[in-house]
């Protein structure tokens, strides 16, 4: 898992209606809105997730 960051958060005016989207026959692979410019995402840091070991006595409670 990686954390992805943006230097600038997109605002409402950074999006326009997608001409390829058909509201009468929506396709989940075609977005309703598209950005007006590239957002240039970058990796912030690598994240690791650790789970606590299961205790044998926890099932007996």
Structural class, from helix and strand content?
mainly beta
Return the average pLDDT rounded to an integer: 85
What is the overall silhouette?
elongated
Strand percent estimate: 15-25%
Main sheet characteristics: 2 strands, antiparallel
* C-alpha-based Rg, rounded: 21 Å
**Sequence of secondary-structure elements:** EEEE
**What low-confidence regions span 5 or more consecutive residues with pLDDT below 50?**
none
Helix content estimate: under 10%
Query: Helical segment tally?
Result: 0
Strand order of the largest sheet: 1-4
End-to-end CA span: 34 Å
Count every beta strand, where a strand is a DSSP E run of 2 or more residues.
4
What does this structure look like?
There is one protein chain. The protein is an all-beta fold. It has no helices and four strands. The radius of gyration is 21 Å and the shape is elongated. The two termini are 34 Å apart. The mean pLDDT is 85.
SSE topology sketch:
Elements: E1 2-5, E2 15-17, E3 33-35, E4 42-46
Antiparallel strand pairs: 1-4, 2-3
Short structural description:
The protein has 61 residues and is an all-beta fold.
List key phrases describing it.
single chain, 4 strands, mainly beta, two-stranded antiparallel sheet, 61 residues, elongated, 25% strand, two-stranded antiparallel ribbon
